[in-house]
Amino acid sequence: MTDVTSPSGDSSDRPSRWRRFSAAARRAVSLPAQGLDYLYHTGQAYRHFTLPILNGAIGDQLAARQDARAIQMSFRQLGADVAVADLHLPGPPRTTVVFLHGLMGDELIWQAGSPADVPRYGPLLQREAGVRCLYVRYNSGLHISQNGQLLAGLLTELLHQHPQDVGELVLVGHSMGGLVIRSAGYYGTHTPTGTPAEWVSRLRSVFLLGVPNDGSFLEQNSHLTSVMLRKINVAPTRFLSKAMDQRSNGIKDLRHAFLVDADWQNPHADDLLMPPRTVVPPLPGVRYHVLVGSLLKTATSALHHYFGDGLVGAGSAVGRVFGDPALPPEAQVQTRVFAQQSHAGLLSNPEVYQYLREHL
């Protein structure tokens, strides 16, 4: 005897299966398009990073051959370089906050990002704290000391061109940007005339966010790897070592946080242990806020000290200079650790913003 499916069961089952198949087919067909759409929109949102990334990687080489793609240090307004004399600084004299990005970054990290609802410090501070915010873009592939001298010159010109518009001066730097600020402080006080630059006397506060004040463990490990490959001295390892050594001078300076020309010019600059390094102390009369990120919940372990926010160790972020218990009484240093916070997260964290807002 042959089993026969009833007409009612057949008619109710067949469309259900067909609908499921059709829906699955539509999803399968749309996935590549959705993926391409996602990649396109992501690329559009972050396309401004293309040039800064290139400069961070080989910016020193671009500058040496006067390549048009080499970024020139400049203030930025409305997405373009602006000459200091042409800066639009409306209103009465106000506290002026100058932001500096890190390696391979640009000024937009302080202004906007994805998702759109995360706090961005520049616009918020300008709206809620009544300060004026300026943003600097620079070639992060150059030596830190070169950018420090350029920043010192830029701030000198700012005070020269807009003496009545700039009140007290505040500098905020993330990662390498903090080292550039410290280097600028060194050159702002070590002038040819022996007299500190005018902008140094206007400087009230410096905020250092995730700054490798004692160097980057990532660059230290890269240098060690390159040296070991070179010592093996066979064709493949020599090739790899040579390729690794093509990274920019800015990246190499992160190894030990070289802030002064004499450090990287020293013949022992590439020594694995204790290379010569100029001590750059805090500027007198300036309050320093050392903001440290930690991937961990607690700030007491060796992992926190070494890995910190994932890119900068907490020990390096505090640094021997700012963590020295024998700092002179006039030194003004305040340290704050933000738990469960990544290196990039320091740029868009409500607690970090609140700290900035309260201490401006």
Automatic annotation (TrEMBL):
What SUPFAM superfamilies does its record include?
A: alpha/beta-Hydrolases
Q: What is its main location?
A: endoplasmic reticulum
Taxonomic superkingdom: Bacteria
Localization per record: Endoplasmic reticulum; Membrane
Q: Where is the AB hydrolase-1 domain?
A: 97-351
For molecular function, the Gene Ontology terms on record are: hydrolase activity
- GO CC term (a single one): membrane
At the highest ranks, the source species' classification is: Bacteria, Pseudomonadati, Bacteroidota, Cytophagia, Cytophagales
UniProt xrefs under Gene3D superfamilies: alpha/beta hydrolase (3.40.50.1820)
> Could you tell me the keywords of this UniProt record?
Endoplasmic reticulum, Hydrolase, Membrane
Q: Which segments of the protein form a coiled coil according to its record?
A: none
Full protein name: Alpha/beta hydrolase family protein
What InterPro entries would the database entry show? AB_hydrolase_1 (IPR000073), AB_hydrolase_fold (IPR029058), SERAC1 (IPR052374)
